[in-house]
């Protein structure tokens, strides 16, 4: 059936170099029907492959973030580090980052004075580079499913930063994950979430957390925080916004500061 549909589509196409090639084959040749069918099938495979590659059908969620399909909130974390230090001051001494490419964030944080950093990668680390694998061997970075409790004691870190991860969780799992992230932080929980309408939502067809990515509005997040008893860290929010304003910094992701 697929071959017949492909043939019908070719008949609707305007004149091109491909049509005379098929029609010019002599009908008396016994190989002509087989050759024609073979060309049609080959063309169909090429069209399917092209459509998948251009629409992201063969692209994983993590690859979509790497390729810039919409803004990457994990890369935004690295841009925001100077302003986070202004907002949290000495509390940025023990930081946990949760999200894809956590090795890059942790490496950036470790370059800061008087800062210790750890990371949790929600995806597998099989394709990690040598520097990332070194952090894994040292126990600085680990891979973990954030739908379940993190293997840390309460208030193990002063500040916990999460990016490009909560957008993949349904409210059912958010009800478990967000309180757990707040549990392991002592001075603040910072959430970097995508804006609705970003291209990343279209590119990520499947999520490793069981559902497609769902980018939510700020009003949705605020209502959710109220319902779950999580409060805004007003002092940190004000300091962050003041520092960002002075440097004309405009984040490409939503940033929420919550009390631990």
Termini separation comes to 59 Å
User: Spans of 5+ residues with little confidence (pLDDT < 50)?
Assistant: 1-29, 48-70, 201-209
Number of strands: 6
Principal-axis shape: globular
Fraction of residues in helices?
40-55%
Helix and strand content put the structural class at alpha/beta
Radius of gyration: 25 Å
Q: What about the largest sheet? A: 6 strands, mixed
What's the tally of helices? 11
- Rounded mean pLDDT is 79
Percent range for β-strand residues: 5-15%
Helix and strand run: HHHHHEHEHEEHEHHHE
- How would you write the strand order of the largest sheet? 3-2-1-4-5-6
Protein name: Methyltransferase type 11 domain-containing protein
InterPro entries: CGR2/3, SAM-dependent_MTases_sf
GO molecular function, one term: methyltransferase activity
Keywords: Membrane, Transmembrane, Transmembrane helix
Blueprint of the fold:
Layout: H1 2-12, H2 18-23, H3 32-55, H4 61-66, H5 73-88, E1 94-98, H6 102-110, E2 116-121, H7 130-137, E3 141-143, E4 157-163, H8 171-183, E5 185-193, H9 200-203, H10 218-227, H11 234-246, E6 254-258
Parallel strand pairs: 1-2, 1-4, 2-3, 4-5
Antiparallel strand pairs: 5-6
Helix pairs in contact: 1-3, 5-6, 5-11
GO molecular function: methyltransferase activity
Organism: Ensete ventricosum
Keywords: Membrane, Transmembrane, Transmembrane helix
């Amino acid at each position: 059936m697929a071959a017949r549909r492909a043939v019908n589509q070719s008949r609707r196409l305007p004149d091109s170099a491909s049509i005379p090639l098929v029609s010019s084959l002599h009908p008396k040749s016994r190989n002509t029907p087989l050759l024609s069918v073979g060309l049609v099938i080959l063309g169909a495979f090429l069209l399917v492959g092209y459509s998948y590659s251009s629409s992201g059908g063969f692209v994983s969620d993590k690859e979509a973030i790497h390729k810039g399909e919409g803004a990457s909130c994990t890369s935004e974390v690295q841009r925001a580090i100077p302003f986070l230090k202004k907002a949290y001051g000495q509390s940025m001494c023990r930081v946990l980052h949760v999200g894809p490419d956590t090795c890059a964030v942790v490496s950036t944080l470790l370059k800061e004075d008087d800062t210790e950093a750890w990371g949790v990668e929600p995806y597998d680390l099989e394709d990690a580079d040598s520097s990332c694998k070194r952090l894994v061997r040292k126990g600085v970075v680990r891979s973990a499913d954030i739908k379940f409790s993190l293997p840390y004691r309460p208030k193990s870190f002063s500040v916990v930063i999460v990016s490009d991860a909560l957008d993949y969780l349904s409210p059912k799992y958010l009800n478990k994950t967000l309180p757990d992230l707040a549990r392991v932080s002592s001075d603040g929980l910072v959430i970097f979430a995508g804006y609705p309408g970003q291209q990343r939502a279209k590119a990520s067809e499947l999520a490793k957390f069981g559902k497609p990515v769902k980018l939510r509005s700020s009003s949705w997040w605020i209502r959710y925080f109220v319902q779950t008893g999580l409060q805004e860290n007003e002092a940190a929010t004000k300091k962050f916004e003041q520092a960002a304003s002075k440097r004309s910094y405009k984040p490409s992701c939503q940033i929420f500061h919550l009390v631990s």
